[in-house]
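Rotation project, supervised by the postdoc (A.L.). Task for the rotation student: set up a whole-complex structure prediction and record inputs and outputs verbatim in this book. Inputs entered:
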Amino acid sequence: MKTLSENACFGGTQGVYSHASKATGCDMTFGLFMPSEAADGPVPVLWYLSGLTCTHENAMTKTGAQGWAAEQGIALVFPDTSPRGDGVADHDDFDMGQGAGFYVNATQAPWAPHFRMWDYVTDDLPQLLGAHFALDMSRQSITGHSMGGHGALTMAMGLPGRFRSVSAFSPIAHPTSSDWGRKQLGGYLGKDESAWAPHDATLLMQSRGFDGPVLIDQGADDQFLDLLQPEALAAAIAKRRQPATMRLQPGYDHSYFFVSTFMEEHVAFHADALYA
Amino acid sequence: MKTLSENACFGGTQGVYSHASKATGCDMTFGLFMPSEAADGPVPVLWYLSGLTCTHENAMTKTGAQGWAAEQGIALVFPDTSPRGDGVADHDDFDMGQGAGFYVNATQAPWAPHFRMWDYVTDDLPQLLGAHFALDMSRQSITGHSMGGHGALTMAMGLPGRFRSVSAFSPIAHPTSSDWGRKQLGGYLGKDESAWAPHDATLLMQSRGFDGPVLIDQGADDQFLDLLQPEALAAAIAKRRQPATMRLQPGYDHSYFFVSTFMEEHVAFHADALYA
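Outputs recorded:
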């Protein structure tokens, strides 16, 4: 593991590190905020998964999450959104390939060798973090924005017992029935749609739900509302009677200005679960 | 004036606008955060001047200032740091020319035609803002980072009665004796150093001070400490017995992670003065 930068931030440290990933077969970069409390012992972890076109950096610099995490004594992990590099496959479109890994393990050419973001986020990176930092890996929660909200919800429901709480900002909520999903799941996982189901938050909510609290914020003026399909997830939550708070926020769009506005509440929501 | 974007943000609106500036003779872009209170009438204004290489955008996306301004019912203005465009002079170095206007009115070739950032920030842009937005221009305060901290301090002291309070994050505090200053003031204003004095916070503090509260935060681990020379300004503050709070923050560097860490306190400091 290589330290790329470390900056004092809200009494703690915002670091950026890179490492050779077994899962993705390439070097991966991630951001990690450690609150001051980590000096005295392991602290709980909140994962933040980012959206299309983002790297580890966007949320780390634009959401203001560190201030709230510092207040709660919680670490924040900001993984990248895909494998990257010259030897890694890519696509001309912004919503496929590098910067758009969709948090799945690709099985199809040309993606299969490197696009294993599910394993990277759920296995490879947690092992590295647990080994190198004062993190209590028995207390983890997860959130994310857009494609990252999709990743957060699918990982939380797909790995029962791993995360104590899950939240999402304007998640891609029903990718198997959206142009933000069918193209990518088809490309990464192949034409057999049964392989897509574990990567659709609405289908997972229908089939199994989540054993813990759920918080979802969605801007009512989001320019991508038709692609995100929050109404499908809302219906699945209602039908299952899943304990969840789902809020349509009037006036808000898909931007980081929206995410930063509600970040305080999301971090406090996760802190309640992590310290319960 | 042209609206480039408007995003809902902390109950208010983060806008980006462009306009043809008389002062700089080119199109200028600025950011403006209006809190929800502006719907009911004019709100006070806090100016944020940015540092070398920045545009209107950096502080607007990285400091988290809008959340605190929304809490206080204060508007935020984020001007650009120089004139820009194909017809505008530039320099190969990052600390001179476009992105590095140093908040002066240049008198020397090739800078004189456009590099009039003092007039732009103190005259041109305030007139535009007062005419187009629900802003109470009788209640203004000013802050900034690095080169922008220099601008905030020199404008606050250079225009008595204009600003109710001034603060700065790691300002260029004594440019007439620093490589961040001598080169630029010489280039923009010429060899006669008497023309530089109104653009040196330490010299202004020695000669006139500020009739209001002053807050300065400086990271003790700032990589540019030798160029910033906070000790010169501290000595001038002490000698004048200027009411001021000047803090060296252990561990912090020159980055936006430092600025965002102390932004809440700066906005609250200005709110005290603006609502006094």
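Student's summary: DSSP finds nine helices and nine strands in chain A.
Supervisor addendum: The interface with chain B takes residues 7-11, 14, 61-62, 64, 66-67, 219, 221, 249, 251-253, 255-258, 260-261, 264 of chain A (CB under 8 Å).
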